[in-house]
Design a protein that fits this description.
By secondary structure, the chain is α/β, with parallel strands linked by helices. The protein is about 25% helix and about 30% strand. Bound molecules: 1-O-pyrophosphono-5-O-phosphono-alpha-D-ribofuranose and magnesium ion.
Length: about 180
């Protein structure tokens, strides 16, 4: 495999029982502090998407905003923020998704993408896939073509992939367990 992936994985801090008991939180802020690991992460996505005729990189608030814009600039695409509810001032569309307790929602500005544009969706992590599924629905409602979803971290057999409406999912590393760290 790609020799850069181990360094990326090791730069992600694992915080047990955050934000609640039983969760092994994958903290990408330590990846952002490590210039080589951060650059390698962006470069891998850029190398993958630069020749796929992508004109839209859609990033999911908040942690998708930490990777998406760098990728967009490098491949010559626009960046479209998919925001949590109530943040976008213009005409917008909304898609809700199911969480463990309750629902949340993502919004996108109408006019941010044109029919037929080819898009990738970028986020830090996929767990259930609910968040990515809402992002896909937003883009498809505007008749954009979602070429792929790209995440830094995801399980090898992501349950979420069943929720991605058949869209390809590209993942760099698996979540780390505490045993692997330190
Ligand atoms: C986290 C993560 C993904 C999403 C993955 O975001 O950054 O966006 O959950 O979960 P899923 O695959 O089960 O939908 P979160 O909403 O916690 O907030 P943040 O990115 O604003 O920190
Ligand atoms: Mg998120």
């Amino acid at each position: 495999g790609d020799p850069r992936l181990q360094g990326i994985s090791e730069a992600i801090r694992v915080v047990p029982h955050f934000p609640k008991k039983g969760i092994m939180f994958q903290d990408i802020t330590t990846l952002l502090l490590n210039h080589k690991a951060f650059k390698d992460t962006v470069d891998i996505f850029v190398d993958r998407y630069r020749d796929m005729d992508i004109s839209v990189v859609a990033g999911i608030e908040a942690r998708g905003f930490m990777f998406g814009p760098s990728i967009a600039l490098a491949i010559g695409a626009k960046f479209v923020p998919l925001r949590k509810p109530g943040k976008l001032p213009g005409e917008r569309i909304s898609e809700s998704y199911v969480l463990e307790y309750g629902t949340d929602c993502l919004e996108m500005h109408v006019g941010a993408v044109q029919p037929g544009e080819r898009a990738v969706v970028i986020d830090d992590l996929v767990a259930t896939g609910g968040t990515l599924s809402a992002a896909i629905r937003l883009l498809e409602r505007m008749d954009a073509k979602v070429v792929e979803c790209g995440c830094v971290i995801g399980l090898p057999e992501v349950k979420g992939q069943n929720r991605l409406n058949g869209k390809p999912l590209y993942i760099l590393v698996e979540p780390r367990e505490l045993e692997d760290c330190c």
